[in-house]
Design a protein that fits this description.
The protein is α+β, with helices and mostly antiparallel strands. Strand 5 and strand 6 form a beta hairpin.
Length: 512
């Protein structure tokens, strides 16, 4: 063999060896073997504080029920989480897909750290796909003896995240989409909101319409067991195993103090006030409905091996099959699989009225996901379902935006449905292939007509003409949006529609 050929062969071999080594390093879960201890939720709620007051109220509840309240406004959603942090006496268990260091994220982080300084044990589990706080900042928070922070399915290359994601896509594509905020194993907020300004009407350009539930009683104990399973799993890695340095929390504390001063000057309703929290505490006590409820969740054991057993989607499909009269759905992303289409068709054949509200191309923050919905839109309408797509200037959502944010565009982030005006589901689960087959999800299924009616009332508002377009098929089998009548995706540019058509041609539906 010529010398130059041997050199090229040797170089190629070295390249392949290096590439294989890098790939194997990238594919390993970092910190998986790092020291950690198993911890559990409280065996029972404390006998003092707000938890005890709520438990006392629940003593008059029928057996097998929990207390549920619907959280349908942005300021209530913020204050309820702030209330849980400020009233905690023993534990806070917090699990989120996204937590951003903006106004909402800083204020809630400040409240959580204040709880830790009071002696509350804080366990904070966050997905690692969209890092917002730096590893050093998280490590500084976790340095407090009462705070533990773990990252779910973290990336190995902390500074080369995009390259790492490409090399390790098979592992890193699986994400934890759960959203729970649990206090003292007694009260919880579970729903669709991430912790960022846009989920509370505070973003300057694009905000989200969303829905949460406040829960108290036995169902919270079930939610805590779900949290424990995730927290103690091998894919939940302590942040200190991923970084050797810590930031100085003084800068974060200074930033939060300046933020509070600014909010005070603006007379913002989001400035933490004890009077607001006390008022919200009284309102929750008044609004609680005793209801049978169930935590629907993806068993962590099924992570990366989804066969639909032990998954939220399996349990939800069982409930959908029981519908006799009506099914109301509001979802940020509605991408029907063949299985979903068969379930919907079976319901419509039973004369069940099916109504779907989702994002329009103009309101969505994920055009690729909308392309999956667009590919199935004709089939949905031909089957007889009613379809509405949100206007980006929806009046009902803008009315819930923070002062000075009314001009921001609006999108749907809600994940909720109502069956026969009796059962309601609210959680993190989108009706799309990613939620069904890739992400882990959690939500509450409530069997109670009062709660179902309250959720339904929230969903109804999105169908009003000032909030959404009704999508139909004309006699020529072409899509129409109204009002006003349009024969293409309204309030969009040609470029937006062109990009959506390109997405529709790509083989990406299983990832949406």
């Amino acid at each position: 063999m010529p010398a130059h050929a041997r050199f090229l062969t040797s170089a190629a071999a070295r390249f392949l060896l290096v590439a294989a080594t890098l790939f194997s390093i990238a594919c390993a879960i970092p910190g998986r073997k790092s020291p950690r201890h198993i911890s559990k939720a409280l065996a029972s709620p404390p006998s003092f504080g707000w938890a005890a007051s709520v438990e006392l109220q629940l003593r008059s509840a029928p057996p097998g029920t929990s207390g549920i309240a619907v959280i349908n406004s942005n300021i209530d959603a913020f204050n309820d989480r702030l209330l849980l942090a400020s009233r905690a006496t023993k534990t806070l268990d917090i699990q989120y897909f996204l937590w951003t260091p903006d106004t909402i994220g800083l204020l809630l982080s400040d409240a959580v750290l204040a709880a830790a300084r009071r002696g509350v044990r804080v366990r904070f589990l966050i997905d690692d796909l969209n890092p917002t706080f730096s590893d050093r900042t998280l490590a500084a928070m976790a340095a407090h003896p009462n705070v533990e922070i773990r990252l779910f399915n973290p990336q190995g290359w902390r500074r080369l995240r995009k390259l790492d994601f490409i090399l390790d896509f098979a592992r890193l594509n699986y994400r934890m989409h759960n959203k729970m905020f649990i206090m003292d194993n007694a009260c919880a907020v579970i729903g669709g909101r991430n912790i960022a300004d846009e989920y509370f009407g505070l973003h300057k350009s694009h905000n989200m319409r969303d829905l949460d539930l406040f829960a108290a009683g036995p169902v919270v104990r079930d939610a805590s067991r779900v949290f424990d399973d995730y927290w103690n799993s091998a894919v939940a890695v302590p942040v200190e195993a991923l970084t050797r340095s810590r930031a100085d929390l003084a800068s974060l504390q200074s930033q939060t103090a300046n933020l509070k001063s600014q909010l005070a000057a603006e007379h913002s309703p989001f400035l933490p006030r004890e009077s607001s929290l006390a008022a919200r505490q009284r309102a929750i006590a008044k609004d609680l409905v005793f209801a049978r409820c169930e935590v629907l969740y993806d068993n962590i054991a099924s992570f990366r091996s989804r066969n639909h057993e032990g998954t939220l989607v399996k349990r939800l499909e069982q409930e959908l099959a029981t519908a006799r009269h009506s099914l109301e759905v509001e979802a940020a992303y509605f991408v029907m699989s063949k299985r979903d289409a068969a379930i919907t068709s079976a319901l419509l054949n039973k004369q069940v009225h099916v109504r779907v509200v989702t994002n329009s191309l103009a309101s969505t923050n994920q055009p690729a996901a909308h392309s999956g919905h667009a590919n199935r839109r004709h089939d949905l309408l031909r089957s007889g379902a009613a379809l509405y797509e949100l206007r980006p200037d929806a009046a009902v959502a803008r009315a819930d935006h923070a002062p000075g944010r009314q001009s921001a565009l609006t999108g749907i982030h809600t994940k909720a449905l109502v069956i026969d005006e009796r059962k309601a589901f609210v959680g993190s689960f989108n009706l799309d292939p990613r939620s069904a087959n890739i992400n882990t999800e959690v939500g509450l299924l409530i069997d109670n007509p009062v709660i179902a009616r309250r959720v339904s009332n929230f969903l109804d508002t999105a169908t009003l003409p000032e909030n959404s377009w009704r999508v139909t098929l004309n006699p020529h089998n072409r899509l129409e949006w109204a009002p006003p009548l349009s024969h293409h995706e309204p309030a969009t540019t040609r470029w937006q529609r062109f990009k959506c058509r390109i997405y529709r041609l790509l083989p990406i539906e299983s990832l949406l």
